[in-house]
Description:
The chain is α/β, with parallel strands linked by helices. It has helices spanning 3-29, 46-62, 80-92, 104-117, 144-157, 171-183, 202-209, 222-234, 251-256, 274-284, 290-309, 315-324, and strands spanning 33-39, 69-75, 96-102, 120-124, 137-139, 162-168, 187-194, 215-219, 240-243, 264-268, 329-330, 335-336, 348-354, 357-361. It has twelve helices and 14 strands.
Amino acid sequence: xxxxxxxxxxxxxxxxxxxxxxxxxxxxxxxxxxxxxxxxxxxxxxxxxxxxxxxxxxxxxxxxxxxxxxxxxxxxxxxxxxxxxxxxxxxxxxxxxxxxxxxxxxxxxxxxxxxxxxxxxxxxxxxxxxxxxxxxxxxxxxxxxxxxxxxxxxxxxxxxxxxxxxxxxxxxxxxxxxxxxxxxxxxxxxxxxxxxxxxxxxxxxxxxxxxxxxxxxxxxxxxxxxxxxxxxxxxxxxxxxxxxxxxxxxxxxxxxxxxxxxxxxxxxxxxxxxxxxxxxxxxxxxxxxxxxxxxxxxxxxxxxxxxxxxxxxxxxxxxxxxxxxxxxxxxxxxxxxxxxxxxxxxxxxxxxxxxxxxxxxx
Length: 362
């Protein structure tokens, strides 16, 4: 074989290799991206886990069929250890683009893992210490401080000056109570904690009753708040009960029965735009919940960042920076903006249980 023929072969092989490289880059831009949703699919917060899935599935349904984005659901059981195990399992498989989570105990456990692995983590979480500037963690609901401002306004509107607090002793309960204690300008007459898995709070409530409060703030998940409402009524307590966003689901009404009447909830606004509202009602035969709305927005934000960063030389850093730079992103309820800590600038409403139905107080 002469030198000319050898050079022709080399040139042809070079063209073939270059073509393969270009094509492979193109296929990578359309490769499957995996969002891992580590949610409480069982346990006390399973209802909020189901609401999360609804919002996620609605967001996926809005994507064109050509988009290769899938969501893998893992059950956190609202247990930090289980959540860590699921995070590490999916990280080890090498195709985890971003993570969604719900609940302070889970989000706080996953936060250091997300930062270390440079994985975007977007959570519905109340714990104040989740906030940190310019990293890979984002809060897709309002901070506990913003929530507490609305809670304190409600407490003031109810004329409560002597307040008692009962709370589940975890990141969620402690975070909410600590925020309240820093800002409440009335008299805190009692503070009683219990395990998150507790089902009998009569001992704590009896101590609270002895202090004759004007109202009781309950920092706990929906089912537990329902039990507190029922047991407080059994003990003859007639004080107002107030709770935060974690108790905003039907488990509250199921657990409390008629004892829930007059209970007040402060939670992120469930008011969605007409398009989302109509689609949600048509699909699920009920009004949207704030969890579904916020998780819908989370998926849209993540998929938008994936689009923007596909050709980036540092995909993970680009994802983080893209979401931090969001301004007036078209959300399902209102334009989405984050502060410097990646915390959503949220809107809160007050609800009251009237004849077994949660009604927004205008």
